[in-house]
């Protein structure tokens, strides 16, 4: 009974927020995530197809990991724009004028090495998930995501170290 009383006091003593931050819209994020999920399921591609797409003119190979991780190693031809730096302006500068441009993405969890520069992340928090949602949310619908787990030491990967 004492615990219930303390909880009741704590809840009534906590001031209610007058207004939620209008610059943060979690319900809209939830709606975006739900709407993106079916499309994402069709946009996962195997490594050989990923490499073939990357070789096509006009395709952007985007690495959204940190600048430090990118500098320590990345797939040859990748361009770095960390997810934390995504804005409408920064994406337009990297993607260019065509929002339908093919964009390929990968993250730490696409590699079996599980060490720097690609330490394994928690599966539900893998960077590909947030990157895909953000790109589509910013108006870039033509995102393809590497589905496979590969070894960055495999010569087919063409891993570049800094």
Question: How does this structure look, described?
Answer:
With 162 residues, the protein is α/β, with parallel strands linked by helices. The protein has one domain (40-160): 3-Layer(aba) Sandwich (Oxidized Rhodanese, domain 1), CATH 3.40.250.10. It has helices at 2-13, 26-42, 47-54, 67-72, 88-95, 127-137, and strands spanning 44-45, 60-63, 74-75, 79-80, 103-106, 143-146, 159-160. β5, α6 and β6 form a beta-alpha-beta unit. α2 crosses α6 (127-137). Residues 3-11 have low confidence and may be disordered.
State which percent range the strand residues make up: 5-15%
- Derived from helix and strand composition plus strand pairing, the structural class reads alpha/beta
Question: How would a textbook summarize the main sheet?
Answer: 5 strands, parallel
CATH fold-level name: Oxidized Rhodanese, domain 1
N-to-C terminal Cα separation, in Å? 62 Å
Strand order of the largest sheet: 1-6-5-2-4
What helical percentage do the residues reach? 25-40%
- What letter string, H or E per element, gives the SSE order? HHEHEHEEHEHEE
State the CATH class. Alpha Beta
- As a whole number of angstroms, the C-alpha radius of gyration is 20 Å
Shape: globular
The whole-number mean of residue pLDDT values reads: 91
Low-pLDDT segments, ≥5 res? 3-11
Q: Which CATH architecture is right?
A: 3-Layer(aba) Sandwich
Number of DSSP strand runs:
7
Fourth CATH level, the homologous superfamily: Rhodanese-like domain
| Count of folded domains | 1
């Amino acid at each position: 009974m004492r615990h219930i009383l303390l909880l009741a006091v704590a809840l009534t003593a906590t001031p209610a927020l007058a207004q939620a931050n209008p610059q943060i819209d979690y319900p809209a994020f939830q709606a975006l995530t739900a709407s993106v999920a079916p499309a994402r399921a069709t946009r996962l591609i195997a490594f050989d197809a990923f490499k073939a797409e990357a070789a096509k003119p006009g395709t952007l190979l985007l690495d959204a990991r940190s600048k430090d991780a990118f500098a320590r190693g990345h797939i040859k031809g990748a361009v770095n724009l960390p997810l934390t730096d995504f804005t409408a302006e920064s994406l337009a500068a990297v993607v260019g004028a065509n929002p339908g441009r093919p964009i390929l993405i990968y993250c730490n969890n696409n590699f079996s090495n599980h060490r720097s520069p690609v330490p394994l992340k928690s599966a539900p928090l893998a960077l590909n998930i947030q990157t895909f949602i953000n790109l589509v949310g910013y108006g870039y619908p033509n995102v393809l995501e590497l589905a496979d787990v590969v070894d960055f030491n495999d010569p087919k990967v063409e891993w570049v170290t800094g």
